[in-house]
Amino acid sequence: MINVIRKKGVNPVTKTVLHWIQWTRVSTVVETALAKKMARGGTYSVGEASGVMLDFPQFIIDELLNGNAVKVAGLGEFKLKVSAKADPDPEKVTTRGAQVSVLFEADDELKSRLQNEAEFKIVTTPTPEGQKDADSAETPTESDGPSSEGGPSSEGGPSSEG
Q1: Taking the model in full, what pTM does it have?
Q2: How confident is the model at residue 128 (pLDDT cuts 50, 70, 90)?
Q3: How far is residue 40's CA from residue 24's CA, in Å, rounded to a whole number?
């Protein structure tokens, strides 16, 4: 069950009142809890599953540092975004001060399963852990589509992500 809360805001330009739903976190599941779930299947011990999950990020980091994207079937693809200060003179564009970000694009199968299997429950008050997420959204504009902040959806369907 995916908990969502109703949000309301006013477009500062058009003064239109907008309503939308936004995902609110129930809790954060850590790798040890996932390892226990994996172990119930009988293939892995809790220690094996936990060890793989704890080692996995380092392997992703190593591949990204080698200039590779990392695709995990059923999960998605990790890629790097590198940006630096722009300048009209190409000689002044260097790697000095370059910023590195990690981008993640969910696998189509993951997105499809979430969309098709999602069941929503509108709650009146976010849970304590979800409080920050629920209240951190900026007031959207009418042209906003689905966003990570869960602004109004131009498609009319659920638009909340985490």
Answers
A1: 0.66
A2: low
A3: 28
